[in-house]
Amino acid sequence: MKTRIKEFRARHDLTQEALAKMVGVRRETIVFLEKGKYNPSLKLAYRISRCLDATIDELFLFEDSDFE
Questions:
Q1: What is the C-alpha separation between 68 and 57, in angstroms, rounded?
Q2: Which residues are 3's β-sheet partners?
C-alpha cells in the first residue's frame, strides 16, 4: 500500500510529530505509514483523513497485491 500522507501533511504545514499528536499515535507510526511499512486500522485511517481534510481513498492507494 502506498500513501499520500506526506504530501497532504506538507499542504497543511504539519510535522510528523504534530500529526501523530493529533491522531494519538507515536511519530514512528506516521513514519512507517508514510513509507508504506504499516497498514493502519480503519479508525486510524479515518482520524488521519479528518486531520488532513482528505478521504481515506485519497490518502491510501491500494494495489491488487495488497488484497492477496
A1: 19
A2: 60
